[in-house]
Amino acid sequence: MIEFALIVPLFALFLFAIVDFGLLFAGYTTMRAGVQAGARLASVDQYLPSSGSFQFPCTGTGGVDQRTADLVCLVAQRIGTTLGTDPGRLEIGVAVSATNVTVCASAPMKSTTGLTSPFLDGRSLATSSTIRIEQGPTFSSFLPGSDTSPSVVYGTSAVTGVTIAPYQCPSA
């Protein structure tokens, strides 16, 4: 009976860690696919939805032009709800140069089971994708770096530029 009492907590921690890290991996895969899709569509400047509207209203604030807001909202829509992260704190960045476009995203990790919180708190999932521009862009960079920077409102959430340290969206 003593062996059972010693092994069960370790087994439970191991089991819950598998669940949390499995959800994080699924969230990272979803985020990576959304960023890659957004970068690809931005590289050919074909990112407006065919119906002309997004699932949620999309508006830029603080000087963000509508085409850039549309691109950020497209990436947010492609990413959707990432498992294992805080969905209300998704950050997206777009960097444009003469030849490349880089789209990146970051979101803080969150323990679903609660038992792995000590290992996940303060860390974030982040990914980026750089693709050569094939058609001249009609959008601009979206890389706010402070709390007073512009944001894009997608539905009821404000999507800000990537600011979670130490990750920064690299310049394209």
Q: Overview of this structure, please?
A:
The chain has 172 residues and is of the alpha+beta class. The protein has one domain (2-159). 35% of the residues lie in helices and 19% in strands. The chain is built from three helices and six strands; from the N terminus they run H-E-H-E-E-H-E-E-E. The protein has helices at residues 2-43, 66-79, 117-120, and strands spanning 58-60, 91-96, 100-108, 124-132, 152-154, 157-159. The strands form two sheets. Strands 1-5-6 form a three-stranded antiparallel beta sheet, covered by helices on one side. A three-stranded antiparallel beta sheet has the order 2-3-4, covered by helices on one side. Helix 1 (2-43) packs antiparallel against helix 2 (66-79). The longest helix has 42 residues, at 2-43. It is elongated and about 70 Å long.
As a percent range, the share of strand residues is: 15-25%
Number of helical elements: 3
Number of strands: 6
What is the residue-averaged pLDDT? Answer: 75
Shape: elongated
Q: Give start-end ranges of low-pLDDT stretches.
A: 50-54, 144-148, 162-168
Q: How far apart, in Å, are the first and last alpha carbons?
A: 61 Å
The helix/strand series, from N terminus to C terminus, equals HEHEEHEEE
Number of domains: 1
What structural category do the secondary elements indicate? alpha+beta
Largest sheet: 3 strands, antiparallel
- Computed over alpha carbons, the radius of gyration is 19 Å
Give the proportion of residues in helices. Answer: 25-40%
Q: Which strand order does the major sheet show?
A: 1-5-6
